[in-house]
Design a protein that fits this description.
By secondary structure, the chain is of the alpha/beta class. Helices cover 37% and strands 17% of the residues. The longest helix is centred in the C-terminal third of the chain and has 19 residues, at 200-218. Belongs to the RNA methyltransferase TrmD family. GO terms for molecular function: tRNA (guanine(37)-N1)-methyltransferase activity.
Length: 248
């Protein structure tokens, strides 16, 4: 997977892309990340990339010429890559969206800034808009980092164990079950006995029940979208009898 990131602040990516899973994926050549400074494509010696909005109003708008030139230059190198804009008006980044993006050959991610990007950029080039949620960031750089991280985790070989990605929260539409490791007791809190039993079928059912229960309590909106089987309904009924309205 090839990520080309178009930004006014390439220095922001030092650190997040040089550590942990992203670093290892780059070393394994599973992904390639290239940063492109939009200022390098400005038309004047001061490298101006913003201007006042037509019609008045607060703030500045990213100019169309430098960004257009940057996109065209990168698109020439990566004709098969999808042009993505980080934008509050985009579709929310979810596990399903990350899965979809992971199947593409590459992405050219535009990091917006200021009050926004000249709309003609979207009209001419943008094929997908991605948002992190209903809030505003100072720029698209953090959103770009999140997209790269979420997609990279889904590339086979990026994680130490590929099964980890398959059991993460949201993979099956539910929140993940509680996790424990050594020691078996800490500050009066013990690991659930069932996890120490060695009975894999009981552990599987316990984990599924915990995942269903946590989702019902914390994110009932997610549970409403999940296709529950007969076992799921039995597990939820058992949790409801045990915990009452907290699960309902």
């Amino acid at each position: 997977m090839i990520f080309d990131i178009l930004t006014l602040f390439p220095g922001m990516f030092r650190g997040p892309f040089d550590e942990s899973i992203i670093r290892r994926a780059r070393e394994k050549q599973l992904i390639d990340i290239s940063l492109h400074n939009i200022r390098d494509y400005a038309l004047d010696r001061h490298q101006v990339t913003d201007d006042a909005p037509y019609g008045g109003g607060a703030g500045m708008v990213m100019k169309v010429e430098p960004l257009s030139a940057c996109i065209q230059a990168v698109k020439t190198l990566r004709p098969a890559s999808t042009v993505v804009m980080t934008s509050p008006q985009g579709r929310p980044l979810s596990h399903g969206v990350a899965q979809e993006l992971s199947r593409r050959q590459g992405m050219i991610i535009i990091c917006g800034r200021y009050e926004g990007v000249d709309e003609r950029i979207r009209d001419l080039y943008v094929e997908d808009d991605i948002s992190l949620g209903d809030f505003v960031l100072s720029g698209g750089e953090i959103a770009a980092m999140a997209i790269v991280d979420a997609v990279t985790r889904l590339i086979p070989g990026a994680l130490g164990c590929d099964e980890s990605a398959a059991t993460d929260s949201f993979c099956d539409g539910l929140l993940e079950y509680p996790q424990y490791t050594r020691p078996p007791e800490f500050m009066g809190l013990s690991v659930p006995e069932i996890l120490l039993s060695g009975n894999h079928e009981l552990i599987r059912k316990w984990r599924r029940a915990q995942s269903l229960g946590k989702t019902a309590r914390l994110r009932p909106d997610l549970l409403a979208k999940v296709a529950l089987n007969d076992e799921d309904r039995r597990l939820l009924k058992g949790l409801e009898q045990e915990h009452g309205s907290a699960v309902r």
